Task: inverse folding
């Protein structure tokens, strides 16, 4: 999973920020606006934080299996397959 997290972390900071998530999420129709992206990030972080670390990333994926973010799991599967040209099994989490 770390490989997939790193593929989104364009600046290599160890965290994914709004700018790194905004275009993929909006382009794929997962989020409609920057505010939607912020809500996704805030769903796993402390109030006011605008970046997710690897642990937060895993929380999003785990919670998306049975929450209102369930469409997010499909985004990650498709996005990682596109980036890495390989099948992704997110059930290992």
Result:
């Amino acid at each position: 999973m770390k490989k997939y997290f790193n593929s989104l972390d364009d600046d290599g900071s160890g965290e994914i920020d709004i700018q790194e998530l905004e275009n993929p999420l909006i382009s794929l129709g997962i989020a409609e606006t920057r505010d939607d992206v912020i809500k996704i990030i805030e769903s796993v972080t402390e109030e006011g934080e605008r970046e997710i670390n690897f642990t937060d990333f895993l929380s999003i994926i785990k919670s998306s299996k049975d929450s209102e973010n369930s469409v997010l799991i499909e985004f990650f599967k498709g996005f990682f397959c596109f980036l890495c040209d390989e099948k992704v099994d997110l059930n290992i989490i």
